[in-house]
Sequence to fold (389 residues):
Amino acid sequence: MSAIKKIIYVGYVPLTFKVAADFFITDLASAGTVVEYWDCSHFFFGNLKINGAMEGDWIIKVGGISHFKSLLKDLDVKEVVFFINFPYNGKVIRLFRLFTVKNLKIFIIARGILPVPGKTVKKSILKLFEPGMFRKGIDFGLNKVALILKKIKYIKSFDRIYFAGDAAINIAGVGYKKDTVKSELVCINSSDYDRYLNLSTEKLIEDRYVVFLDEYLPYHPDVKMFGLVTVEAEDYYNSLNKYFDDVEKRYNVIVVIAAHPKAELYQNNNFYNNRQVIFNKSVELINSAEFVLGHSSTSISFAVLSKKPIIFLYTQYMKENMAYYFDGIYHFANFLNSSLVDITENMDSKSEVPKYDEVCYQEFKYRYLTSEETENKVSKDIFLNSVQS
Fold:
């Protein structure tokens, strides 16, 4: 490969500071590498806007496939590497065909995956009656076409895949098994694992406490973006607070809230009956907690790494109306052999202090967070050395 003079990230959403950090864009820029971000959100969502999106003349809004082609004309593609920030599938065949025809060097960073429920006959049948099934059927068909096109080499494989944990490699998308044969594979850690390596020993709460991993469920911006069904705010917070009251009495602890970073309404409103709500300290809070409460937050990774017991929470409404979400919680709890509790029911009077399963936690660690090769290394160092060499 020729010396790399520029790295271009191609993303499906506007660039945020978190994405810039998690995908090493900030590290590359600090190391003096010329970096651009081509924002292709118009392909996926039309005129999508995200609060807190980054701005700069190195961020290019791509208007469509014709605009993308024109941007490529001005490049010496032998000196450029493209990092694709979305998986290959039926929706982006035309874009990946461009990468193939021009023989562009395309890499992908696969990190941040969590356990997902497996498919069953019952679930497949139920999906036939879900809203938007026609659209899903079209997507299914396009993905089958995408797989065939990769098999016949009409679409190239990724040249390099950086992946965190054995399961993360399927983030490469349709035909990822072929990519594992054709691509150069580089082990890194998940962004959460790297944060855990840099864990501060600071203790934020002096009292005995448990931590709830808030997901800002009623108001999360993704709900509107993707048209998802979610919980009704008043019922949801009332159920949580009632359950937290029971937890505090039964285990002689206080419940502290690790706020979701996008929970803007929490700045001026306390939905948790005046309990402490703390931003941007999930890993520190989890590390000193007695145990952890949550749904399916990515921060549960910190509980696994800190070897803290987890109680997974759901409501009857989630189970009956948010099957996609409840299935995720159920599968997460089952994978980790952890407690699963319906917070709309009374707490079992025989509830014991939860425990964690060492074997399940270890399996989770290496499937989703790190590898034996990299568990004592920082991903930034691995990544920068790999790119620069």
Q: What stands out?
A: The first strand starts at residue 6 and ends at 11. The domain at 196-367 is CATH 3.40.50.2000 (Rossmann fold).
